Amino acid sequence: MAGIVELHVPALPEYLQMVRSVVGAAASTGANLKPERVADLRLAVSEATTNAMEAHGLSGLEDRVTVRCDLSASRIEVEVADCGPGFDPNSLPSLPDVNSPDRLRHESGLGVSLMHHLTDETIVESHDDGTAVRLIVHFGD
Amino acid sequence: MAGIVELHVPALPEYLQMVRSVVGAAASTGANLKPERVADLRLAVSEATTNAMEAHGLSGLEDRVTVRCDLSASRIEVEVADCGPGFDPNSLPSLPDVNSPDRLRHESGLGVSLMHHLTDETIVESHDDGTAVRLIVHFGD
Amino acid sequence: MDFGHLADWSSVLSDFRRSVRNQWVVLALTGELDLGSAPRLHQTVVGEVASGHHHLVIDLSGVDFMDSTGLGSIIGALRRVRSHGGDLLLVCTEQRVLRVFEMCDLDRIFVFHVDVDSAVGTPVRV
Amino acid sequence: MDFGHLADWSSVLSDFRRSVRNQWVVLALTGELDLGSAPRLHQTVVGEVASGHHHLVIDLSGVDFMDSTGLGSIIGALRRVRSHGGDLLLVCTEQRVLRVFEMCDLDRIFVFHVDVDSAVGTPVRV
Ligand SMILES: Nc1ncnc2c1ncn2[C@@H]1O[C@H](COP(=O)(O)OP(=O)(O)O)[C@@H](O)[C@H]1O
Ligand SMILES: Nc1ncnc2c1ncn2[C@@H]1O[C@H](COP(=O)(O)OP(=O)(O)O)[C@@H](O)[C@H]1O
């Protein structure tokens, strides 16, 4: 059953749904994963893929974004890779408190923290020639 | 809108559905294609991918099968590629007449002719290190 | 009249349902009939024939996709029951599934019914 | 009482439906709210506010997926109507969508209703 599925898509928003479907289907092949956890993984992947697509878009890159699902007996790991300019995941600005009126000025900046929330492990490797985000969910939790 | 989507899946039957979904989604991005034609393309791709998976399975190959959708303004081309032993598409045995009782002995051998039926163009390139089948559907027909 | 019993298949065959209506064994399939599921149909039919059930109805009305591998498993079922003097009827209304039979000229070999009631109303030849 | 009118959006916005109920403009969204659809929500809200509609209900009950980009467009809508003295109410029952608000602590900022009737029953502040 175990296997690796790899998907390359244009960095265009209309392909996000396809990415989520493929990840959802790949995760469901691992019959051990609860539907809620599959939903969480789909959301985390959507966040990472959105960032990858935006990184390509902002840099005018024509390259496709790669999504790789690696399913083993105990976990699923999804890697989302782009060849954008990269960023420093350790110096992301933190958002104002929810009670501050300023909070509503921030329509973005939630993705990376959501990924950590939604997965057992989120590993960001970013260099100036690209970023790879690995999203890992263990079965049976 | 135009773009190339590439999917690599293990040569296992449980991934056929994913292949069909991705091709269906990619084809639907080309808003010009009628739902019936998308359905035909999905079926043709299912036939080609089944053959590719069987070619890997019979040869004990661990390699994945590649499905590549190339969507332009006027047509969609889906290439299904494997690294199996290849075959000669020009010397496939023909099936007995439907009225012959012998016809029921043949549970297989329908795939390649179906692909031709279902697409505008089916191009088979087969060598002893692999096969690539290109399935082409023009829009607006 | 025998209204039959309806049994869930084992988990492996979770998308097959078996019932007995009149003297027909009805196998209701759902989902997609391809290389992934065709081997299960094959095994099921082999099992039925081995236990003396030679009159089968395959209900394809819940099948939304079938390719030539799926079709092949149905051809095999027909051959198998016929070789035991039995018969196979199909229930199918989905155009996309019927089309696969047609494209392969096999709509002339199979008998199609619009619903299970109509199929199991067919007298069993003995 | 104004039962409002129901209009299909233009084809580009084919998964948005607009209606007017009491003094609220109700935007009913369906499908998935992500980078693909969020810009359309943004444009729609900008358009409503520009034409003087500052009391909006966004009906998310037909939305089966929303990510932080989708959420961002809703945050932007709230800020925009509030800056004109208006308000935004949300209709949402889908747990998966509610969860995104919760995980971002934004369930405390938004007002949720279980259906459109309940939302449009809210008196408009003037
Ligand atoms: N793959 C990436 N490539 C380049 N920059 C990225 C990438 N992922 C995230 N970033 C940077 O980190 C910031 C925060 O990302 P995130 O938390 O997802 O919020 P958002 O994408 O909504 O801004 C982004 O605005 C972007 O500057
Ligand atoms: N990708 C392939 N690699 C190797 N052999 C192939 C491939 N595709 C088709 N063939 C050969 O052609 C034959 C006919 O294929 P097809 O018409 O699809 O019917 P079926 O696969 O049901 O036998 C196959 O049995 C196989 O021997």
Structure description:
With 141 residues, chain A is an alpha+beta fold. Chain A has helices at residues 16-29, 35-58, 111-118, and strands at residues 3-9, 65-71, 75-82, 121-127, 130-138. Chain A has a single domain (3-138), classed as Heat Shock Protein 90, CATH 3.30.565.10. Chain A contains three helices and five strands. Chain A has a five-stranded antiparallel sheet with strand order 1-2-3-5-4, covered by helices on one side. The longest helix of chain A has 24 residues, at 35-58. Chain C is of the alpha/beta class. Chain C has one domain (4-120): STAS domain (Transcription Regulator spoIIAA), CATH 3.30.750.24. Chain C is 33% helix and 30% strand. Chain C has a six-stranded mixed sheet with strand order 1-2-3-4-5-6. In chain C, a hairpin with a 7-residue loop joins strand 1 (6-8) and strand 2. Classes of the chains: A alpha+beta (141), C alpha/beta (126). The interface between A and D is medium-sized, with 26 and 24 residues. The complex binds adenosine-5'-diphosphate (2 copies).
Rg of chain C, alpha carbons: 13 Å
Q: Estimate the strand proportion of chain A.
A: 25-35%
By CATH, the superfamily of chain A comes out as Histidine kinase-like ATPase, C-terminal domain
**Which regions of chain C contain 5 or more consecutive residues with pLDDT less than 50?**
1-14
> What's the pLDDT, averaged over the residues of chain A?
91
CATH H-level name of chain C... which superfamily? STAS domain
Using the 3D structure, state the CATH architecture of chain A.
2-Layer Sandwich
Cα(first) to Cα(last) distance of chain C is 18 Å
H and E string of chain A: EHHEEHEE
Largest sheet of chain C, if any?
6 strands, mixed
Number of helices of chain A: 3
Cα distance spanning the termini of chain A: 20 Å
Please identify the structural class of chain C as seen in this structure: alpha/beta
Q: Strands across the major sheet of chain A, in which order?
A: 1-2-3-5-4
Q: Greatest interface and its residue counts? A: A-D, 26 and 24 residues
- The name of the CATH topology of chain C is Transcription Regulator spoIIAA
Mean pLDDT of chain C, nearest integer? 87
Instruction: Supply Rg of chain A.
Output: 15 Å
CATH class of chain C: Alpha Beta
Please work out how many helical segments of chain C DSSP would assign: 4
